[in-house]
Structure formats: structure tokens, C-alpha cells
């Protein structure tokens, strides 16, 4: 049987490396916040280096989309922590290149905008990671999303002071469907299947991973 840690390390050995990029802009593990929108609601602030990484990856995806043919499916991403220098996954997801209308996904194109409401799933808009997480942390006047209440409880030791339990990092990459995922025997791996594989391995690495689906993926050697 394949060892989850071996599969994880082999896949990420040339992907996640120093310097690790922090997800939030923070100081001494206290996340900075800002006011946004007509109602001046408070939001958790993305790290500018994280934003630059997302924009670089989305720029590659957009350039590939403009070609007649491309192998790029979209963006794979991972929110993670470090324990004794080892990457521990907190959440794994994807942002597809093609949207529901068959054209370039607005999740990808919005990453190049100033507002970043969608921002490849990490936007400040509701139904997006940092929008809903901010709503859970600051108590925005809307129906709470249990998923992000769980995120808030897992990430913060003190939500009132915005104190993180430990530093939270972010990685993403443009994924080509002709690349191979953690299991070499599967050969070329689509973005959707890659996400499923990584969540499965990630749940073995971290039983408290924040993904709600795909965590029971069996590791067959």
C-alpha cells in the first residue's frame, strides 16, 4: 500500500518550497483586516505576495486560453501549515479554466481585477473563501455558512483578536492535463481528478483537513 506521506512529498517536492507564501497579511500571527464595500464591512486581508502568485498563475491560464489549443485545465491550490518543516494540508481546491458558459471562467479573469471579489475562489465576495471566512469571523449580517465557521475555528485561536493558531500558507499552480498526479500509474491526470487525489492523500496527512468531500479516497499501492 502506498504511504500517503511518500506520495505527498514526492508530488510536492519541487512544487512547495521556501520561501513559503503566507495566505494572510499579518504580524505576530495576528491577521490584518480592512473595511470594504458600501456597508464598510470588515474583511481579512490577503497577503500581497499571495495575490501576486495567484495573478501570475491566472495570467498563464489566460494566455493559454487565448491559444487555439491548450492542455491547461486551470489552477490547483493548497492552503497549508508547517509542522517541523513538513507541509500539512489544510484545504485543497481548484479553479477551472472554463466556466459554465463554455468561455474563460470569471473566477480566473477576475484575479486580474483590482477588487478581487472572485479571485480564483479566494475572493472577498460571498460564496468565496475569504468573503465567507470573513463573514464567519466578523459576524456579517447574513446567514452563516457552517463550512467557514469550521474554517474560523480551525485557523484562529482567538477570532476577536484575529490571532492565528499557527502561520497559514498558500500555494497554487497552473495545471496541465498531460501532467501526472501523485499516482504515476494513472498517467496524465485532469485537474478534477488531481484535486480528488490530493484531497484523499491530504486527509491521510491531516485527518482534520477542511475539505468536506473526497476525504475517504483509498490509497491503493
Provide a quick synopsis of the model.
The protein is 30% helix and 22% strand. The protein is α+β, with helices and mostly antiparallel strands and 221 residues long.
Beta-strand percentage? 15-25%
For the biggest β-sheet, the strand order reads 6-5-9
SS field, number of helical segments: 6
How far do the termini sit from each other? 4 Å
**Mean pLDDT, nearest integer?**
93
H/E element sequence: HEEEEHEEHHHEEEH
What class would the helix/strand composition place it in? alpha+beta
Number of domains: 1
Rg over C-alpha atoms, rounded to the nearest angstrom: 17 Å
Structure characterization notes:
The chain is α+β, with helices and mostly antiparallel strands and 221 residues long. It has one domain. The chain is 30% helix and 22% strand. The protein contains six helices and nine strands. It has helices at 4-12, 48-65, 106-109, 129-138, 146-155, 191-205, and strands spanning 26-27, 30-31, 33-36, 41-44, 72-83, 86-96, 156-158, 163-164, 169-176. A three-stranded antiparallel beta sheet has the order 6-5-9. Strand 3 (33-36) and strand 4 form a beta hairpin. Helix 4 crosses helix 5 (146-155). The radius of gyration is 17 Å and the shape is globular. The model has no long low-confidence stretch (mean pLDDT 93).
Topology, please?
Blueprint: H1 4-12, E1 26-27, E2 30-31, E3 33-36, E4 41-44, H2 48-65, E5 72-83, E6 86-96, H3 106-109, H4 129-138, H5 146-155, E7 156-158, E8 163-164, E9 169-176, H6 191-205
Helix pairs in contact: 1-6, 4-5
Question: Which descriptors apply to this entry?
Answer:
three-stranded antiparallel beta sheet; alpha+beta; 22% strand; 221 residues; 30% helix; globular
Amino acid at each position: 500500500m502506498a504511504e500517503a506521506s511518500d506520495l505527498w512529498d514526492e508530488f510536492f517536492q519541487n512544487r512547495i518550497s521556501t520561501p513559503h507564501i503566507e495566505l494572510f497579511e499579518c504580524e505576530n500571527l495576528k491577521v490584518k483586516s480592512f473595511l470594504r464595500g458600501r456597508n464598510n464591512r470588515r474583511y481579512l486581508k490577503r497577503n500581497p505576495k499571495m495575490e501576486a502568485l495567484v495573478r501570475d498563475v491566472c495570467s498563464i491560464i489566460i494566455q493559454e486560453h487565448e491559444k487555439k489549443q491548450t492542455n491547461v485545465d486551470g489552477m490547483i491550490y493548497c492552503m497549508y501549515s508547517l509542522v517541523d518543516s513538513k507541509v500539512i494540508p489544510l484545504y485543497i481546491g481548484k479553479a477551472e479554466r472554463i466556466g459554465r458558459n463554455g468561455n474563460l471562467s470569471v473566477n480566473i479573469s477576475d484575479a486580474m481585477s483590482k477588487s478581487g471579489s472572485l479571485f480564483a475562489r479566494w475572493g472577498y465576495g460571498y460564496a468565496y473563501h475569504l468573503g465567507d471566512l470573513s463573514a464567519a469571523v466578523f459576524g456579517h449580517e447574513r446567514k452563516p455558512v457552517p463550512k467557514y465557521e469550521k474554517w474560523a475555528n480551525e485557523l484562529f485561536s482567538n477570532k476577536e483578536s484575529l490571532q492565528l493558531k499557527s502561520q497559514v500558507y498558500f500555494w497554487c499552480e497552473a495545471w496541465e492535463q498531460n501532467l501526472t498526479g501523485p499516482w504515476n500509474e494513472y498517467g496524465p491526470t485532469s485537474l478534477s481528478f488531481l484535486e480528488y487525489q490530493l484531497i484523499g492523500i491530504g486527509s491521510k496527512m491531516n485527518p482534520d483537513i477542511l475539505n468536506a468531500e473526497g476525504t475517504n479516497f483509498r490509497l491503493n499501492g
